[in-house]
């Protein structure tokens, strides 16, 4: 017997067999990381060819500690969820049919975890890459008792909460994505209607179908869409000294459906969004602990050049991707300039690096210079400049001018910015 077979906490569960082997954190990180080929030997390539190599940087991904922890949490949650819904246990099908809920041995409700952070901090990409660790999103079982015919198992499903925040639109979104994944027309009788008169019935029917196909986890992204965003003028008028504003729920019944799903069904949930939405959701729901049974995972932006995650893990790797004949040293000056121009947001840092390289390839001397980053910020990234200025100001009273920077959770900003009073004194 091989050593990996000696210890298997999920042995015999057919739903877990298709998820692949149990990975150590080191093995998981090795699969998550994506570093495009370094631009070696491209110095003599035509510049228009080098620009196409440069575009590979959009695939750059260097997981930080929060991403590593998230991948571990998601894997634990999915496997634990399947352990609670083992098809070999007859009570599983009582739960799927709705005849029984959580009566079996006082089993706990479905697991959930939250992921929060400013737009561009890498939340959605991290979750997507965690899902990519599994061999397949849909597993086809030729035999899966007690089903008499082949049966599909959906490991994960990810959708955005619709901008309207309405139950009808979420029901359509879930049904359309389900039919795309499973290549079926199971919900055509709902989707074909111009208006869904009973959206909660539609949501309940979707949930039962998802449960019968052993959905491993449902990811709801952009949860801030559950709440109404005030106009900029309203936010300026209603914010207090801490920069907070009140968010109002779009449809109370939708959050009640979500709460019921967490309390009475065993499909795990991942809820992700910006700090304002996650803070409002946590305050609104009466059982906040159910949202974080598998952890609350904050995704931060980089604040200082001394941050090892920024200097050693992220920028040190990104800095090797220079497509000019003459390179720039990745020193403290460049580190600080990139941080100032990007606001410390990983997505913007990568975009800034790509734009600076593009600008450098336009000049005759074929050299990447510090000024190229300034010009990139003033041209390609100019629309982001006001938001970056707000971030770098570290003034929470200005954050409400941008919906992605709003927060109802003061502890988040304390953790993000550190001692604000010290920096302003």
Structural summary, described in words:
The chain is α/β, with parallel strands linked by helices and 425 residues long. The protein has a domain at 65-298: Rossmann fold. The protein is built from 20 helices and nine strands. It has helices spanning 14-17, 25-32, 47-54, 65-84, 91-97, 123-131, 167-182, 188-191, 199-212, 232-238, 252-264, 275-284, 308-318, 332-342, 346-360, 370-378, 385-393, 396-399, 410-417, 420-424; strands at 112-116, 138-141, 151-154, 156-160, 217-221, 227-228, 248-249, 269-273, 296-298. The protein is globular, with a radius of gyration of 24 Å.
CATH architecture of the domain at 65-298: 3-Layer(aba) Sandwich
Spatial arrangement of strands, main beta sheet: 4-5-8-1-9
**Unreliable segments of 5+ consecutive residues:** 405-425
CA distance, first residue to last residue: 66 Å
**Helix count, DSSP H or I runs of 4 or more residues:** 20
> Tell me about the biggest sheet?
5 strands, parallel
CATH class of the domain at 65-298: Alpha Beta
Beta-strand level of the residues, as a percent range?
5-15%
How much helix is in the residues? 40-55%
Write the element-wise H/E pattern from the N-terminal end onward.
HHHHHEHEEEHHHEEHEHEHEHHHHHHHH
Radius of gyration equals 24 Å
